[in-house]
Amino acid sequence: MSLPRFMIAAPASGSGKTLVTCGILQALVNRGLRVASFKCGPDYIDPMFHARVIGTRSKNLDTYFVDDPTLRYLFGRTAEQCDVSVIEGVMGFYDGVTFDGTESSSCDVANKIGAPVILLVNARGSSLSSLAVVKGFKEFAPNNIRGVIFNQMSKRVYDALAPKVREMGLEPVGYVPKVTDLVLESRHLGLVLPGEIESLREKLNRLAEVLEGSLDIDLLLRIAGDAPDLEYSAPEVGHVDGKVRIGLADDDTFCFTYEDNVELLERCGAEIVRFSPMRDPALPDVDGIVLSGGYPELHGAELEANRPMLEDIRRKVSEGLPCIAECGGFMYLHGTMQDRDGVDRKMCGVIPGRTWNTGKLCRFGYVTLRPVVDDGVAGGPIEVKGHEFHYWDSESNGEDWEASRKGDTYRCMHDTGTLLAGYPHLYYYSNPDIALAFVRRCAEHRDGRRFDARRT
Fold it and tell me: What is the dihedral angle through the alpha carbons of 76, 82, 85, 86, rounded to the nearest 10 degrees?
C-alpha cells in the first residue's frame, strides 16, 4: 500500500525537532492536506499537542513496545486515512535503549517502516562543519537519510552549502532561520490550557509561513511519495462478546492516554465512555474504568472539591468495579495527594496513604512488568511493557507486580484482581492479552459470570 511518509530526525536532542516538525505539520495542514503525525518513543506529550493545537491525527511508534508486524499495523492503520504522515524522531537519530546499539532508536523505526529521513542539523555556530555532521550520520550505519534541513542558518550560508549536500547524494530541503519570537515553551507541549490554544495556533501559523519560504515543502512531499509501499495486517486479538462499557477519564487532568490502548480495548469488545473526574458529579453507567496519567497535581483543588465523584469512585472501586489506574490516575486514588503548591488534598482513598512531590525524578525509562500474584487482573502469568516518568512518590507503591529495567528489578503496583494501579504506564499492544483480560473482568463485573474469549 502506498503511504507517503517521512521522518524528521536529528543528531541530538535540543536540535529543534519539535519546533520544526510542528511548523511543517502546520504548513501541510494549511495546504489542505490530511496529515497524520507520529512520535518515536513512549512520549504522550508531543502527540497530544499535535492533536489539540495543530489538529492532526497523532500516535506513537515504539519498537521497544511492539514487534515489527505490529509496528507496521499501528503506523499503517492511521497513515492510510491521510495524505501524508510526518514522524518526529526521538533523541539523537541512532540513540536507542542501549548505549552501544540502535535498537528502539529513530533509525530503527525509520528502517522498519521504510520511512525516508530528513536530518535536521542545528548549525548554530558553524557553517562548513555542519556538512561533516551530515556526512558522518549518512555513513555511520544503514539508514534511510534522504535529505537535510539546517536549523538556525542564514540563507546566504545555506545557498553556499546546498550544492555540497547534493554532492553527497542527499537532497537539500532548506534551512530554518533564527525564529526566537516563535519558539514554543517546553511546558506548552504538555500543558495546553484552553485559553492558550488560539494564540499557539497563531504562532504556529506564523512559523508555517516562515518555513514555506525557507523550506522546499514540495520536495518534502515528493520524498514522502517516494517511500516504498508498506504492507500490514491487524494482529489477532481476543474479543469478549456482549456490550462492555468502560469509562475513560478524559479531561485537563487525565490526558496521558495512548490512543492505541483505547483502540485495542475497543477491538477486545469495549465501548469507551469518556468522563471527567474534575467536572462530572458521578461515574457514568459503566462496567469498569481507566484512570490515565496526567496532571492531578496541577488540579488538586478542583479534584478535591468534587467530593461526589471522589466518593462514587471510592465506593465502586472498593466494591469491585474493575479499574486500571496509571501514574496520575494512581495518585488520584490515594487518600492524600500533595499538589504542586505543597498543599495536601483529599483524594479518593482507594489506595491508603499519601503521594508527594520528591523534588526529583523518581523513575524514568522503559520497564518490563510481570505479576507476582496468581489471581490478579491478568488471571495468570503475563509480560507487559511500559514506561515510567514521575517526580511524585507514594507511601503505598504496591508489591503485586515485578518491574525490570536495565538490570534493576523492583516491586510495584496494586493488583486485587479487579484493581490494577501503579506508576507505570502500560502499552497494551506490547501484549494484547492484558487488554483482553481487563475487558473480561469488566464483563464479569457486569453480570457476575465468567466470559470465555473468542479469537478474531
Answer: -140
CA angle (101, 107, 112) in 5-degree steps: 105
**CB 177 within 8 Å of CB 202:** no
CA distance 39 to 54: 14
Instruction: Specify the DSSP element, H or E, that contains 137.
Output: helix 129-140
Query: Which three three-digit cell numbers place residue 245?
Result: 462499557
CA-to-CA distance for 70 and 385, rounded, in angstroms?
A: 14
Q: Report which residue type is found at 290.
A: V
Question: What is the Cα–Cα distance from 175 to 40, expressed in whole angstroms?
Answer: 23
Amino acid making up residue 229: D
Number of CB atoms found within 10 A of residue 352's CB: 13
DSSP H or E run through 394: strand 392-394
- Secondary structure of residue 228 in the 3-state scheme: coil
Interval 107-135: pLDDT, tens: 999 999 999 999 999 988 888 899 999 99
Given a cut of 70, whether residue 302 has pLDDT beyond it is yes
Question: First-to-last CA distance in the chain?
Answer: 23
Active site residues: 327
The C-alpha atoms of residue 371 and residue 384 are separated, in whole angstroms, by 9
Q: How far is CA 224 from the centre of its chain?
A: 23
Which residue is associated with the grid cell 542564514? Answer: 154
C-alpha cell at 414: 496494586
With cell 464479569, the residue in question is 444
Q: What is the mean pLDDT of the chain?
A: 92
Handedness of CA 130, 136, 141, 142 (dihedral sign): positive
Which set of grid coordinates corresponds to residue 79?
A: 497513515
Query: Rounded to an integer, what distance in angstroms lies between the CA atom of residue 335 and that of residue 345?
Result: 8
Quote the radius of gyration of the chain (alpha carbons, Å). Answer: 23
Measured distance CA(417)–CA(373) in Å, rounded = 9
Q: pLDDT tens for residues 398-429?
A: 999 999 988 789 999 999 999 999 999 999 99
Q: The pTM is what?
A: 0.91
Among candidate residues 152, 153, 126, the one with its CA nearest the CA of residue 19: 152
Burial 320-337 (b: 16+ CB within 10 A, else e): ebbbbbbbbbbbbbbbbb
